[in-house]
Amino acid sequence: MAGIIDSIFQHTSEVVSEDGPSAHYYLTVRPLLPVDPASDPYREFGFAGGFLCTSVPSPSRIIKLSQVVSHVAVTLLEDGEYSGLIHVLPVDR
């Protein structure tokens, strides 16, 4: 899932273990919805080609920091057949 990170926050559990309070990091993310793979010309190039998404993100959701597997480069396509879509190109984190 590609998405737009709106915020990063730390939550500390009130339950105290032997090691003390437990702190975890979370992100508020608005997912970008991929288009149908059959109509996405970038899919044929695998990971290196990226993929197309709609330009309107879904409602926010909270994920764990450990669920982030990559950063992405995002390009809004403004001309031609794919105008109004977003090209998402994963880059290693």
Describe this entry's structure for a reader.
- The two termini are 15 Å apart.
- With 93 residues, this protein is mostly beta strands.
- The protein is built from no helices and 6 strands.
- The model has no long low-confidence stretch (mean pLDDT 90).
- The radius of gyration is 17 Å and the shape is elongated.
Summarize the structure.
The chain has 93 residues and is mainly β. It has strands at 2-17, 20-32, 51-54, 61-64, 70-76, 85-92.
Please identify the structural class as seen in this structure. Answer: mainly beta
What share of residues are in beta strands?
over 45%
Characterize the biggest β-sheet. Answer: 3 strands, antiparallel
Number of strands: 6
Distance between the termini: 15 Å
Shape label: elongated
One letter per element, helices H and strands E, the order comes to EEEEEE
Integer-rounded radius of gyration: 17 Å
The side-by-side strand order for the widest beta sheet comes to 1-2-4
Overall average residue pLDDT: 90
Helical region count?
0
Spans where pLDDT lies below 50 across 5 or more residues: none
Percent of residues in helices comes to under 10%
